[in-house]
Design a protein that fits this description.
Rossmann fold; 8-stranded antiparallel β-sheet; Dna Ligase, domain 1; binds ligand MV4; 4 domains; D-amino Acid Aminotransferase, Chain A, domain 1; globular; 5-stranded parallel β-sheet; alpha+beta
């Protein structure tokens, strides 16, 4: 099989993931090309890449979603491959196809694989054929109201009505009672029509106490497919993941082996190439069902990298070059436990409203077992146009308890001023008894919201005392200096302000 080395990658993305991809490229000796919008002229990915090209105005549909413009830059810069990251064009079959047509390697799956998994009814049918368990429900689009009633009587209430073109929670309706069936069906279809231009819906039995568990897979062009175990992603709010961990605290060795084999079967059935994720829903009895497949690198990929010891971006690039996977399933093992917290610029006390603005101070956590994938710097203004995620903090430990304590310590060290962030909320999640116990489901945040919105307790009271002692010492010295200096030169007002700022940055 032909291997075509990649020498220059264009990253069709921004923010932390663009920086993340450039890092692996640099280690592999691959040149990098950044693209940026008006709002991203001063963004980190522009500074970090080998070269950078402006592609348009700030709104994504005028820049990061412009296929023609991005392909034009790829050719102009001599890039032989494009990495789409996540979001934006990463699951756009048309983009994958256009890259192929223009002779540029798309670091991701074929347009056919993207399309086959993008349509959820097609994906369900593919999985049934491959012997992968799916949620009991319809295998065809439900068009008439009679059909819907008939199917729901067979499946039994409660059910979920889902848009075939949807995914990630968009265009979903939970139906609990017979009298709501028709209005829910109409609502789901009109919402799907507006959002996706396609009103096809299907119906599934509602899984109570759902746990979101996904499997990372890698597949090469030679037909080798492996899984890199699971990620537990049930800590979410409004279908936005907040904390992810691996291994899942509810998983058993037997179920993991069986689910892993099903994840590999799912990827093979999709004719998949590259890195992908098979999303399952699991109930409290560890019954699991295929939900959807994400045909891209996921935000939470670093926890898998840490526990399995594989650089997923590097492997994506190696696969795109035509190389076979350098390991077999039996070479892969989980070592220890990793947790990821997503740090958002948001006001948790004000309904989690995005809080973009200028970073006046930032100190990122460091130390053994800690990784911080970010892109902001002191003086940087987070633009209003894109996702308000500032960074991802990943902590590793030999055990789950150690990983939680290390995450707790890292969140404590993390100081950001200028914008409101979710750091304190995440500290509360680490302290929540339901999180510590580990059996939580996707209702965890709403069930624990009162606890989570309280101020985290100061773990070490003595540190407050040390801080006060330092403050007293400082003011005493200032007073001494003042007494020995002439009145004109004792302009320490700005020092006081500066000290106040530093003190405010360090949470008491
Ligand atoms: C479900 C479900 C219960 N039963 N399907 C939400 C996102 C989309 N990927 C599928 N989702 C769900 N589908 C059946 N048949 C519950 C959810 C769900 C959920 C799933 C994963 C993570 C978080 C969730 C939050 C609420 C509902």
């Amino acid at each position: 099989m032909e291997i075509k080395p990649i020498t220059k990658v264009l990253i069709a993305n921004r923010g932390e993931i663009a920086v993340r991809i450039i890092r692996s490229c640099r280690e592999m000796g691959i040149h990098t090309v950044a693209v940026f919008s008006d709002a991203d002229r001063t963004s980190m990915h522009v500074r970090y890449a080998g070269e950078a090209y402006h592609i348009g105005p700030s709104p994504s549909n005028e820049s990061y979603l412009k296929i023609d413009k991005i392909l034009e830059v790829a050719k102009q810069s001599g890039a032989d491959a494009i990495h789409p990251g996540y979001g934006f064009l990463s699951e756009n079959a048309e983009f994958s196809r256009r890259c192929k047509e223009e002779g540029i390697i798309f670091i991701g799956p074929s347009p056919e694989a993207i399309m086959g998994m993008g349509d959820k009814i097609t994906a369900r049918r593919t999985m049934i054929k491959a012997g992968v368990p799916v949620v009991p429900g319809t295998t065809d689009a439900v068009t008439s109201e009679e059909e819907a009633l008939e199917s729901i009587r067979q499946i039994g209430l409660p059910v979920m009505i889902k848009a075939s073109a949807g995914g990630g929670g968009k265009g979903m309706r939970l139906v609990k009672e017979e009298s709501k069936i028709l209005s829910s069906l109409r609502g789901a279809r009109s919402e799907a029509k507006t959002a996706f231009g396609n009103d096809a819906v299907y119906i599934e039995k509602y899984i109570d106490s759902p746990h979101h568990i996904e499997f990372q897979i890698l597949a090469d062009r030679q037909g080798n497919t492996v899984h890199l175990f699971e990620r537990e992603c049930s800590v979410q709010r409004r279908h936005q993941k907040v904390v992810e961990e691996t291994p899942s605290p509810i998983m058993t060795e037997a179920v993991r082996a069986e689910m892993g084999a099903h994840a590999v079967a799912a990827a093979k059935a999709a004719n998949y190439e590259g890195a992908g994720t098979i999303e399952f829903i699991m109930d409290d009895n560890l019954n699991y069902y295929f939900l959807e497949m994400n045909t891209r690198l996921q935000v939470e990929h670093p926890i898998t990298e840490r526990v399995v010891g594989v650089d997923l971006v590097r492997e994506q690039i190696r696969i795109a070059e035509g190389n076979p996977l350098p390991f077999a399933q039996e070479d892969l093992h989980q070592s220890g436990h990793a947790i990821e917290c997503r740090i958002y610029a948001e006001d948790t006390d004000n309904n989690f409203m995005p809080n973009p603005g200028t970073i006046t101070h930032i100190t990122e956590p460091l130390g053994f077992g800690v990784r911080c994938d970010g892109y902001v710097y002191e003086g940087y203004t987070i633009p209003i146009y894109y996702d308000p995620m500032i960074s991802k903090l990943i902590a590793w430990g030999k055990t789950r308890e150690e990983a939680i304590e290390r995450m707790r310590r890292s969140l404590y060290e993390y100081k950001i001023s200028g914008v409101k962030t979710s750091i304190k909320f995440l500290e509360r999640i680490m302290d929540a008894p339901d999180f510590r116990k580990g059996g939580y489901n996707t209702h965890f945040i709403e069930d624990n919201i009162d606890f989570l919105l309280q101020e985290p307790e100061c773990a070490f009271e003595c540190e407050n005392l040390a801080l006060i002692a330092a403050f007293v010492d400082y003011t005493t010295k200032l007073h001494d200096i003042e007494q020995t200096m002439s009145p004109e030169s004792s302009r320490h007002g700005s020092d006081w302000k500066e000290f106040g700022r530093r003190l405010a940055a360090w949470r008491l």
